[in-house]
Amino acid sequence: MQDFVFVVTFCYILRFSQHAIRPLFVALLNLTQALTGAYLALVMTIFDL
pLDDT tens-digit profile of 1-49? Predict the structure, then answer.
């Protein structure tokens, strides 16, 4: 199932990469920052920093 999702996502990226790679990259960067922030907040909550 995970492989299927990966393949579909990969095909989607390839199909739209010609005219959408920059917004996609920005969205990915924002998602990464959000996940990092959430992870840090969780760690700080767990260890009570």
Answer: 678 888 888 878 777 766 667 787 888 899 999 999 999 999 999 898 6
7: buried, middle or exposed (CB in 10 Å: 19+, 13-18, 0-12)? Answer: exposed
Domains of the chain, by residue range, sit at 1-49
In sequence order, which residues have a C-beta less than 8 Å from that of residue 43 and are 6 or more positions away? 49
Gap between the Cα atoms of 8 and 49, Å rounded: 41
CA-nearest of 3, 26, 35 to 11 is 3
